[in-house]
Amino acid sequence: MQNLFSDLKTKTHNKHEALEHSAPFALFHNMMGDNGNENHEAHRKNYYNVLCVMREFHQRCKSLINHATEKYPSLQALANQFEAQAVITALDNDLAELNSINAKGMAELQSVDLPSFETALSAAISAMYVWLGSSMGANIISRRLNKTDYGFPTNYYQSMAKQAKAWPEFKQEVARLLPVLIEASYVEKELEKHNGETLSVAIINDANLWFEHLILLGKSTSLPPQTLS
User: Fold this and answer.
1) 146 and 92 in contact (C-beta within 8 Å)?
2) Which among 66, 127, 133, 209 has most CB atoms closer than 10 A?
3) pLDDT tens for each residue of 91-132
4) How far apart are CA 137 and CA 163, in angstroms?
């Protein structure tokens, strides 16, 4: 179990890279290196798309984690490390400040189905992993955005920068809980239907599904997948 996080990093690398190079995220990173005003509206639309995708992701994670916690109460210690509503509120505040809340765009995102995860338990832990992983660069992104001339709100990235501090405790808590959760999942026959697959393998598989899901959410936005210059 001590190798779970190193395995997660290695075995989700390709999906993580694919996500970073997909729209709207690839365009978002390009945007932060460009201070020119000629692309302000295009960058504003792209930033809006990034925030909408992340809002849908966090909302779905929150619901799924809450569901798993009801089934496995011992997960509550992990769930408590996530200030889910604060993150979603920060996203809502940024979208409101951009004055860009688009009902049609939100509906397109909501029409993207969740993947068929291995188990409720592995889906929740992998959601937490991807959530916290996305917080690691939040402080850098916030600072870079603040250095541009666009004046875009950064409540979300500031909120996620605070969330990143939970990473060491999260890893420790997962290591402590995993043996208990494995026993519980086998007792409930949740892993047996996957041919005896271990919980750690299921977590890795579901983390990859989360990355694929984020890519699909990004594709559902209306921004064309070309690089802005």
Assistant:
1) no
2) 127
3) 999 999 987 555 555 677 878 899 999 989 999 999 999 999
4) 11
Structure tokens at 68: 């798993």
Round to whole Å and give the CA distance between 8 and 82.
20
Q: What are the pLDDT digits (tens) for 163-222?
A: 999 999 999 999 888 888 777 665 555 655 554 458 889 999 999 999 999 999 999 886
223 dihedral zone (left: phi>0; alpha: psi -120 to 50; beta): beta
State how far the alpha carbon of 206 is from the alpha carbons of 11, 49, 211, in Å. Answer: 11, 24, 9
Alpha helices (H) along the chain: 4-11, 13-20, 25-31, 40-71, 76-79, 84-98, 103-110, 120-135, 138-147, 155-163, 167-187, 199-219
Amino acid at 115: P
Specify whether the CB–CB gap between 206 and 12 falls below 8 A. Answer: no
For residue 129, give every residue at least 6 positions away whose Cβ sits within 8 Å of its Cβ, in sequence order, or none.
8, 203, 207
Which tokens go with 87? 């993150």
Roughly how many angstroms between the first and final C-alpha of the chain, as a whole number? 45
